[in-house]
Amino acid sequence: MSDSNNNSFKGDTKYVHAGMQPDPTTGAIMTPIYQTSTYIQSSPEVHKGYDYSRAGNPTRTALENACAEIENGKYALIFSSGVAATDAVIKLLKPGDEVIAANDMYGGTYRLFSKIFEKFGVKFWYADMKDSNNVAKLINQNTKLIWLETPTNPLMNIVDIAAITKLAQPNKIIVCVDNTFASPYLQNPLDLGADIVMHSSTKYLSGHSDVIQGCLVMKDKPLYDDLYFIQKTSGAVPGPFDCFLVLRGIKTLHVRMQKHCENGEKIANYLRTNNKVAKVYWPGFEDHPNHAIAKKQMRGFGGMISFELIDENPEELKRIVSSTKIISLAESLGGVESLINHPATMTHASIPREERIKNGLKDSLIRLSIGIEDADDLMKDLQQALG
To answer: Is the model's pTM score more than 0.90?
Structure first.
């Protein structure tokens, strides 16, 4: 059972203790790894709460409770990846239903929508969600879901969650927010009216680049029941060891995010002074589009930064992203180590180039996931790579 009612912990305390109960058998302070596929039953349908680990596992339950607590929700479900969690949400729909999604979002989400679910009769509309009026124009009687990211991947656009939910609620439209870039430490979409929060827990929740996992959090019991049925029936669940690792990661989420934010601010300001850089995307700048909304709905601006080069020569870009010494060229984000990524050929390559360009994602864009190293070392590394 993933109903978490213990939201009494405040501030940083809840990250250390969320979902955690000492093992009743041994007193172990850490949740055991219940590495089992099945459970003994005293008679048919009489058991201790678990019958088969696809349906439920005690380690996974502890993580579900932790995720529900840190997102100020009541229920959570853990999946084998962030894409699997996204897949479960779209499976709430039927042919003929319509989805409004952001035109700037993770390439894997776009690929899932356009290459898988469009074939089954679900219609997707893509809007610039910086202005909620663009969403309002697309709502009709078939609209069943609004899917958004904020900050977006990779252009760091800010979407007003409360404004979107005000549009959705009178029409009984589900709002799902991909909160991966912000993490629960910086932003809680359920408090702003969202129905579902999705995380790629691979990223900040885990924080150590050693797990692939996804998460959904909600407050509504019928919605939880529908999504649990999809999870159990489709079977995209993680193993208990992966759940254990993310539980461990959550214990330090608050201190890691503080350092990510501190370093992110320093690196973003440094990049603005570099004469090889044309533009820096980071929501902490006062002139960033919707900065005021970011300031209102977030508790910090995070460690994700994108920037464009003045020189758009592909060979120069390739040289730069391949020249960093501390910052590693790799996909993913949110780990303790800093990563550099070229969205057009890596994380967003599945989006057709004409769509990327139309939505502002240039070939010269570079994305950084700023880790928790020494900021001066990171700036020196970028300086030598940029030349």
So the answer is: yes
